[in-house]
């Protein structure tokens, strides 16, 4: 069984305004609905859990019915951090999951995820137990310790930009979160960091530039342009 875990608990403060970015209307439907739909139509996804701010759970329930998102089985309260939100999601599906079931963890603010990326995440997680979606860095990355001077220029061919999904066997990701809790690790910005702390390897899945995270107003303009262009091409 393969379960999509959609993270929508963030406040989206970098976008400006009071409405979190994942709930902004994009051509007649909330951004998060565009994201959930990508998982809902994928034949390899069996169920979906959405981790969201408690203030929006009622709205999300309405949208699930309105847009016919039939695979959404859980709507779970988000935590104070990304790590705690994932942990809440894992707890919610625990009784439903076997150890070798696959959990596909994805940011709600990446609505242009392709079906290929979802499929390859599931295939990779079944083979390697843990995978991360990445794209090669097109730019030279500068490391600085103080924001004033260059500390190091790492070789570009060694660097990739992390995206989501990050996908795992349920037993492994649950073990990683339990280990983090036992060792007072609570600031991980993604789940692969926790897997690495167990001494386990994480396989790479090829991402896509269109699978970007909507973080700023400029990102929102790009998203709308891509969706509009897609609709024109379909016509």
Automatic annotation (TrEMBL):
Keywords: Isoprene biosynthesis, Nucleotidyltransferase, Transferase. Pathway: Isoprenoid biosynthesis; isopentenyl diphosphate biosynthesis via DXP pathway; isopentenyl diphosphate from 1-deoxy-D-xylulose 5-phosphate: step 2/6. Catalyzes the formation of 4-diphosphocytidyl-2-C-methyl-D-erythritol from CTP and 2-C-methyl-D-erythritol 4-phosphate (MEP). This is 2-C-methyl-D-erythritol 4-phosphate cytidylyltransferase. Its EC number is 2.7.7.60. CDD domains: CDP-ME_synthetase (cd02516). The record marks 14, 21 as: Transition state stabilizer. One of its GO terms (molecular function) is 2-C-methyl-D-erythritol 4-phosphate cytidylyltransferase activity. It catalyses: 2-C-methyl-D-erythritol 4-phosphate + CTP + H(+) = 4-CDP-2-C-methyl-D-erythritol + diphosphate. It comes from Clostridium sulfidigenes. The record marks 156, 213 as: Positions MEP for the nucleophilic attack. Belongs to the IspD/TarI cytidylyltransferase family. IspD subfamily. NCBIfam families: ispD (TIGR00453), PRK00155.1-3 (NF001183). PANTHER family: 2-C-METHYL-D-ERYTHRITOL 4-PHOSPHATE CYTIDYLYLTRANSFERASE, CHLOROPLASTIC, RIBITOL-5-PHOSPHATE CYTIDYLYLTRANSFERASE. The keyword Chaperone does not apply. Gene3D superfamilies: Spore Coat Polysaccharide Biosynthesis Protein SpsA, Chain A. It comes from the Bacteria.
């Amino acid at each position: 069984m393969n379960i999509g875990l959609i993270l929508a608990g963030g406040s989206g403060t970098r976008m400006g305004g009071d409405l979190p970015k994942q709930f902004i209307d994009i051509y007649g439907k909330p951004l998060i609905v565009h994201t959930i739909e990508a998982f809902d139509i994928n034949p390899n996804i069996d169920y979906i859990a959405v981790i969201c701010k408690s203030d929006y759970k009622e709205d999300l329930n309405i949208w699930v019915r309105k847009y016919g998102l039939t695979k959404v089985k859980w709507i779970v309260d988000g935590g104070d951090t990304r790590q705690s939100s994932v942990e809440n999601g894992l707890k919610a599906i625990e009784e439903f999951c076997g150890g070798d079931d696959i959990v596909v963890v994805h940011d709600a603010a990446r609505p242009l995820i392709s079906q290929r990326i979802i499929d390859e995440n599931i295939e990779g997680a079944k083979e390697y137990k843990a995978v991360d979606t990445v794209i090669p860095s097109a730019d030279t990355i500068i490391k600085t310790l103080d924001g004033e001077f260059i500390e190091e220029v790492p070789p570009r061919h060694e660097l990739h930009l992390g995206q989501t999904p990050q996908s795992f066997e349920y037993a492994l990701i649950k073990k990683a979160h339990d280990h983090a809790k036992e060792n007072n690790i609570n600031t991980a910005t993604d789940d692969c960091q926790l897997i690495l702390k167990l001494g386990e390897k994480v396989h790479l899945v090829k991402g896509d530039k269109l699978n970007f995270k909507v973080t700023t107003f400029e990102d929102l303009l790009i998203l709308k342009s891509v969706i509009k262009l897609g609709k024109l091409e379909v016509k």
